[in-house]
Specification:
The radius of gyration is 18 Å and the shape is globular. Helix 2 runs antiparallel to helix 11, helix 7 crosses helix 8 and helix 8 packs parallel to helix 9. It has one domain: TIM Barrel (Alpha-Beta Barrel), CATH 3.20.20.70. With about 300 residues, it is α/β, with parallel strands linked by helices. It has an 8-stranded parallel barrel with strand order 1-2-3-4-5-6-7-8, surrounded by 8 helices. It has 12 helices and 8 strands. Strand 5, helix 7 and strand 6 form a beta-alpha-beta unit. The longest helix has 17 residues. Bound molecules: 3-hydroxy-3-methylglutaryl-coenzyme A and magnesium ion.
């Protein structure tokens, strides 16, 4: 195993960010099968679903059943929780890891969860305290940090403030999100440079969507500053229904290939992972956006890390 500075934690979000916005609704069995295959390829952290309103996000209905399918897997499976009711659902089935989500932009947050950013943070304060009392691990998300589809550019001071409040409340990790995929590497450098001056590098994550094809360069910008946690999604599936213009997350297979080629260790077998992407594409019934997958297997061995 490589030294910690050469190890990357990949948080695989395809079962949640990937499927929540897809035109194909996956059954509980298919969602479970996806998670099982991801774990078999070496993925250790999976966002497995969300305890949100099924009216708002039909694809995430019955996330409890997905947990029942997968709870014995040896991986950290976490679920998005938007409010007290979401926490109750998680606690009722003994889920160990949850993620709360807010944003820098009030307009986006209102559309996403019906609350301003400050209102959501106030509500998360007792929620996180309760989750921690119940020995849960809590991750926080800061959406729209690099740009909001409604409000445009966001203040650096606001990103720092929201990130800081999530840490103060007890989040063990905060993922800073380019929800609609508009970030530029120079901006990523600026944001993570500022954040890493105030919060532990080992607890900051980058969540990049690939709308403009910049996600990998954005990861490189964060990597150069010492960020070692990245969220990504098999096949590049993903997006948020309340963020018009957002496209898929950065494809995990592209992240693995890129980072392993640079000498980092992800713990994931690229070859096994690509088999899962193939399965996912068959189930999604349309071509996935990942360029690396599209070139598989013809070209993938030209450079094998
Ligand atoms: P609320 O305002 O507390 O709900 O939350 P309410 O009290 O107004 O209730 C409305 C209905 O929702 C009621 O049902 C509640 O029972 C139900 P009805 O009486 O109409 O039948 N409800 C729930 N049902 C199940 N689980 C719950 C729950 N809470 C209330 N926890 C709520 C409104 C937040 C639930 C709603 O707006 C919602 O579900 N929004 C969806 C949010 C979401 O999942 N967005 C996508 C994920 S965020 C994202 O993708 C960004 C990210 O990837 C990072 C990035 O890219 O930046 C994380
Ligand atoms: Mg996202």
């Amino acid at each position: 195993m490589k030294a910690p500075e050469h190890r990357i934690k990949i948080v695989e979000v395809s079962p949640r960010d990937g499927l929540q916005n897809d035109s194909t609704i996956f059954s509980v069995e298919e969602r479970g099968a996806l998670i099982r295959q991801l774990v078999e390829s070496g993925v250790q952290f999976v966002e497995a679903g969300s305890f949100v309103s099924a009216k708002a996000i039909p694809a995430m209905k019955d996330s409890e059943k997905v947990w029942e399918h997968c709870r014995s897997l040896s991986a950290d499976l976490s679920f998005l929780v938007p409010n007290e009711k979401g926490l109750e659902r998680a606690m009722a089935i003994d889920v160990k890891s949850i993620a709360v989500f807010t944003a820098t932009s009030d307009t986006f947050n209102q559309k996403n969860i019906g609350r301003s950013v400050d209102q959501s943070l106030e509500e998360y304060t007792p929620l996180i305290a309760k989750a921690l009392q119940n020995k849960m691990r809590v991750r926080g998300y800061v959406s729209t940090a690099f740009g909001c589809p409604y409000e445009g550019p966001q203040e650096l001071s606001r990103i720092v403030e929201v990130t800081g409040r999530l840490f103060e409340m007890g989040c063990d990790e905060v993922s800073v999100g380019d929800t609609i995929g508009v970030a530029h590497p120079k901006q990523v450098d600026e944001v993570f440079r500022k954040l890493s001056g105030q919060f532990p590098l080992s607890r900051l994550a980058g969540h990049f969507h690939d709308t403009r094809g910049m996600a990998i360069v954005n990861i490189k910008a964060a990597l150069d500053l010492g960020i070692r946690i990245f969220d990504s999604s098999a096949g590049g599936l993903g997006g948020c229904p309340y963020a018009p213009g957002s496209s898929g997350n950065v494809a995990t297979e592209e992240v693995i290939w890129f980072l392993e080629g640079l000498g980092f260790e992800t713990g994931i077998s690229l070859e096994k992972f690509l088999q899962t992407v193939q399965w996912l594409e068959e189930k999604a019934k349309r071509p996935l956006r990942s360029k690396l997958y599209a070139s598989h297997p013809k070209q993938m061995y030209y450079f094998k890390p």
